[in-house]
Structures are given as C-alpha cells and as structure tokens.
Amino acid sequence: MKLSRLALLSVFALASAPSWAESVVTVYSIDGLHDGDNSWYQVQFDAFTKATGITVRYVEGGGGVVVERLAKERTNPQADVLVTAPPFIQRAAAEKLLANFNTDAASAIPDANNLYSPLVKNYLSFIYNSKLLKTAPARWQDLLDGKFKNKLQYSTPGQAAHGAAVQLQAFHGVARQ
C-alpha cells in the first residue's frame, strides 16, 4: 500500500507542476472511486494537500466521459491528472491526450510507461449464487448455454469503463478458446 500511495502522490506532484502557481491540481476520475469523506481517494488527497499545500479539485464521470472531456479541452486543458480504466486510458494515449512524465516511482510499478502508470490489476471473475447454481461456468462459452438466457448481468460497456474492459476480455478470451 505504501508504494501505491507514493506512486499516486508522485503522479499528482509531477502532473500538477503547471498548476502549482494556482496551488490546485485537478483530477478527472472515473465514477465510483471517491465515495465520501473517508474514501481511499479522500485520504490520498488529504495527504497530498498536507504534504504539498496543493488543493485537489476532483471531477468525476464515466470512463468514456472523462476522456471525451479531455478531448474537448485539448486546446485548453483543465485536468492535471486522469484516473480511468481500460480501454479508455489507451484511447486517451492514442488520441495524444496525455502528457509525457518521468518519475522514479513509476519504475517500481509493473507496466508503467511514460504516459500512464497502472495503479491496480483488474481480474475478471464470475460471481454467482451457489444456492441457485451448483457449478460455476468454467469458460466464456459456457455462458451461451440457454439456461443462462436473461439471467446474466454485467456493466454496460457503453456506460462503464469496467464494462468495456469485461467485453474486450470476453471477446479475446472466447477467441483463444
């Protein structure tokens, strides 16, 4: 957890360099990560403000929404830090919406590059009610069985970043089977 906090604080510090004159750093983030005063985000923001004197301005939206906002603000950027999920971070990189940064902390984070650093690894899993289903599906193909018709639920890919990631993983997973 210390590494994650150090990495996040380093990213904030480096990404916020242009905004230091204002003493405000603006964070655009996917929804659902900042859920109140005692959230992980709030603890990190408070620690960052205490360590630097820089206030964090937080703007939240869906994964696609925050990247679209970056695209619209291309000529007048408002965000200093972007927190999103696949495939939206890759879209932001492909559309050249991200600035290069270098930090020693990023070298300790797997898959970091000079545009973004992953903070977590996402693991795709099934959640099911064992009272209603004795055996969990073992492969994506198993979900095509008629007994699952109208009984599956997942995040809507067009609305939620993790939903899009699940859809992409499903397509690639089925292709390999």
TrEMBL record:
Keywords: Periplasm, Signal, Transport. It is found in: Periplasm. It comes from the Bacteria. It comes from Salmonella enterica subsp. enterica serovar Poona. Its main location: periplasm. InterPro entries: SBP. One of its GO terms (biological process) is thiamine transport. This is 2-aminoethylphosphonate ABC transporter substrate-binding protein. Residues 1-21 form the signal peptide. SUPFAM superfamilies: Periplasmic binding protein-like II. GO terms for cellular component: outer membrane-bounded periplasmic space. The lineage of its organism: Bacteria, Pseudomonadati, Pseudomonadota, Gammaproteobacteria, Enterobacterales. GO terms for molecular function: thiamine binding; thiamine pyrophosphate binding. Pfam families: SBP_bac_1 (PF01547). The keyword Magnesium does not apply. The keyword Transport applies. Belongs to the bacterial solute-binding protein 1 family.
